């Protein structure tokens, strides 16, 4: 508990988490406002449509998580941390936990904020969260952000440089998974099992009871696992990455 | 007490620290001396558990640093004053460190007061001068009121006032009965600060002794003698087998102290105009001892340096 308090103090006495939080909320809620404002009979506002911006918020949250760890390496406060807490596993686990919780909270505020602004702009549309799918589409965003933050922290621990870690995470998330689909024959089969695709699967749902067009919400996932199994898969991927990162950090000269 | 036993650090083919063994006694200021690149910082990082030794071990009061519970209460260290997030205030920096070792929050204000940073405690550490950063680093080292303190090149880049402050501070810490281990590449600085010296070169131990012993062993002790009867004195000294060399109107005698030369002069009835002990320069002595072990020699031989510098473009 002490270590969690320490990492919380460290995180909130710098500026980048504040800015990233503001940016993540602005991007997601702003996008929801856009969707709600432009919705009409052809493209009706749905619960899924309010969450259109969730992937953009995800990017910002991963930048925040990556920065939280790489700036420690950049300013050598990681060494100061290891001097104060020589048990590197607990020090880094505490940091990961604090960053993941912050990411989760940002995700929930972003998701319910997006949903709320949709209700505000289009009071006539029924946006009630009735089904399990609709609950996941909104409340699930926080869970995905939290797990994605763990991935970003793990990559940050391994790479240690802000620019390198952040480009790696973003290029993978925004480009690599999408490009793998284009490989003939095997591409789509591999894509089904890629971690961020699994995260989308959890949020966008399968089966998707709204039966909406792809344009009316975040892109649908082609993963075949059930939503909760998909989230477990994504979390498992993050956990494996984190264990590798911490084992490396524990062996490596600080 | 800090104890290094066969400490070794290898980076690929380079041996940065080579089978280094020494002890840092309790309650004294021990200087850790060596030219740049000798492996001082690497050794300190291994003592503090930041770098893993390739061989051997370093123990603080019999324990490895990484096995210490709440280590800031046992060991305080200042390895680099810049290990602070520039946007974090001095107080916030100390506050998280205090929290991590369950130290009371009021201790933060105490150490800020000790190093004289109370007035700027709320300012961002990125805006601090080197001297202020150094003080913040010392405040961090003192947080847990530790008995063992390590400082890596604490006076590097400081102005004379800052150097004096650090020097006095070290003595104060030792007077309080703490163990202080401080590294430097300046022997003259260490001669003023440290009571014990651990000298290394190229990662190997050159000597461990008290500063006094080191200085007297390392520097050639000679006596300058002036006399109107220089010839007679030279003959008399020559018979005792000491080495004599002429320097202008005087003799430089090595291997015999002032008292013995005086006695000899009295026995031979020689008048003395001067009889004064000469001390070799500390820097020379240090160069002599570590000369072979400097990692990166400058390639300028003495004769190649032009005696007068001609301004360019003339």
What key attributes describe this structure?
heterodimer; A: 254 residues; 11 helices; 74% helix; B: 314 residues; alpha/beta; 6-stranded mixed β-sheet
The overall pLDDT average of chain A reads 89
CA(first)-CA(last) distance of chain B: 61 Å
Strand order, main sheet of chain B: write it out: 5-6-7-3-8-9
Q: Name the CATH class of one domain in chain B.
A: Alpha Beta
Mean pLDDT figure of chain B? 86
| Helix proportion of chain B | 25-40%
What is the string of helix and strand elements of chain B? EEEHEEHHHEHEHEEHEHEEHEH
Spatial gap, N to C terminus of chain A: 24 Å
User: What's the CATH architecture name of one domain in chain B?
Assistant: 3-Layer(aba) Sandwich
Q: What is the subunit arrangement here?
A: heterodimer
Return the string of H and E elements of chain A: HHHHHHHHHHH
- What composes the largest sheet of chain B? 6 strands, mixed
The pair of chains with the biggest contact is:
A-B, 26 and 33 residues
CATH topology of one domain in chain B: Rossmann fold
Corresponding CATH superfamily of one domain in chain B: P-loop containing nucleotide triphosphate hydrolases
Number of helices of chain B: 10
Secondary structure class of chain A reads mainly alpha
Rg for CA atoms of chain A: 19 Å
Total domains of chain A: 1
Radius of gyration of chain B equals 25 Å
| Low-confidence blocks of residues of chain B | 301-307
Overview in brief:
The complex is a heterodimer of chains A (254) and B (314). Chain A is mainly alpha-helical and 254 residues long. Chain A has 11 helices and no strands.
Describe it.
With 254 residues, chain A is mainly alpha-helical. Chain A has one domain (2-251). Chain A is built from 11 helices and no strands. In chain A, helix 2 runs antiparallel to helix 4 (54-74) and helix 4 runs parallel beside helix 7 (132-159). Chain B is an alpha/beta fold and 314 residues long. Among the domains of chain B are: 2-74 and 146-217, P-loop containing nucleotide triphosphate hydrolases (Rossmann fold, 3-Layer(aba) Sandwich); 221-278, Alpha-Beta Plaits. Chain B has 10 helices and 13 strands. In chain B, a hairpin with a 2-residue loop joins strand 1 and strand 2. In chain B, helix 2 (90-100) packs across helix 3 (106-114). The model of chain B is unreliable at 301-307 (pLDDT under 50). The interface between A and B is medium-sized, with 26 and 33 residues.
């Amino acid at each position: 508990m002490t270590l969690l308090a320490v990492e919380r103090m460290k995180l909130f006495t710098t500026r980048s988490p504040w800015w990233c939080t503001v940016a993540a909320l602005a991007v997601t809620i702003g996008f929801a406002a856009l969707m709600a404002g432009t919705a009409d009979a052809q493209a009706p506002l749905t619960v899924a449509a309010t969450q259109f911006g969730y992937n953009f918020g995800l990017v910002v949250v991963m930048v925040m998580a990556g920065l939280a760890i790489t700036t420690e390496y950049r300013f050598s406060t990681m060494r100061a941390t290891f001097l104060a807490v020589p048990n590197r596993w607990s020090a880094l686990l505490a940091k990961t936990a604090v960053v993941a919780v912050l990411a989760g909270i940002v995700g929930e505020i972003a998701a319910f904020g997006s949903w709320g602004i949709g209700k505000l702009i289009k009071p006539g549309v029924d946006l009630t969260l009735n089904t399990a799918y609709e609950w996941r589409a909104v409340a699930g965003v926080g869970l995905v952000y939290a797990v994605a933050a763990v991935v970003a922290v793990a990559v940050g621990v391994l790479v240690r440089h802000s620019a390198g870690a952040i480009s790696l995470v973003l290029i993978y998330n925004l480009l690599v998974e999408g490009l793998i689909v284009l490989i003939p024959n095997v591409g789509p089969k591999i894509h089904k099992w890629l971690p961020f695709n699994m995260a989308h699967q959890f949020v966008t749902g399968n089966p998707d009871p709204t039966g909406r067009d792809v344009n009316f919400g975040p892109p649908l996932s082609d993963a075949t696992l059930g939503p909760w199994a998909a989230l477990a898969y994504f979390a498992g991927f993050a956990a494996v990455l984190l264990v590798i990162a911490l084992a490396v950090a524990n062996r490596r000269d600080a | 007490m800090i104890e290094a036993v066969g400490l070794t650090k290898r980076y690929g083919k380079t041996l940065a620290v080579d089978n280094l063994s020494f002890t840092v006694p309790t309650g004294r200021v021990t200087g850790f001396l060596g030219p740049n690149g000798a492996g001082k910082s690497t050794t300190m990082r291994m003592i503090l558990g930041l770098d893993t030794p390739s061989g051997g071990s370093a123990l603080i009061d019999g324990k490895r640093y990484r096995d210490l519970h709440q280590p800031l209460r046992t060991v305080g260290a200042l390895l680099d004053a810049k290990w602070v997030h520039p946007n974090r205030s001095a107080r916030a920096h100390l506050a998280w460190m205090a929290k991590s070792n369950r130290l009371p929050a009021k201790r933060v204000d105490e150490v800020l007061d000790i190093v004289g940073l109370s007035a700027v405690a709320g300012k961002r550490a990125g805006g601090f001068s080197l001297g202020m950063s150094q003080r913040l680093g010392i405040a961090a080292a003192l947080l847990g009121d530790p008995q063992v303190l390590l400082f890596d090149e604490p006076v590097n880049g400081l102005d004379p006032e800052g150097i004096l402050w650090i020097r006095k501070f070290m003595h104060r810490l030792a007077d309080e009965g703490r163990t202080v281990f401080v590294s430097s590449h300046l022997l003259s600085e260490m001669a003023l600060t440290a009571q014990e010296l651990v000298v290394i070169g190229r990662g190997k131990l050159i000597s461990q002794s008290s500063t006094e012993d080191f200085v007297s062993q390392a520097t050639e002790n000679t006596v300058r003698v002036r006399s109107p009867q220089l010839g007679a004195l030279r003959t008399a000294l020559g018979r005792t087998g000491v080495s004599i060399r002429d320097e202008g109107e005087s003799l430089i005698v090595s291997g015999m102290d002032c008292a013995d030369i005086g006695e000899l002069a009295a026995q031979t009835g020689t008048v003395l105009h001067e009889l004064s002990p000469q001390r070799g320069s500390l820097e020379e002595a240090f160069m002599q001892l570590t000369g072979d072990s400097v990692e990166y020699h400058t390639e300028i031989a003495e004769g190649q340096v032009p005696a007068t510098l001609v301004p360019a473009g003339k």
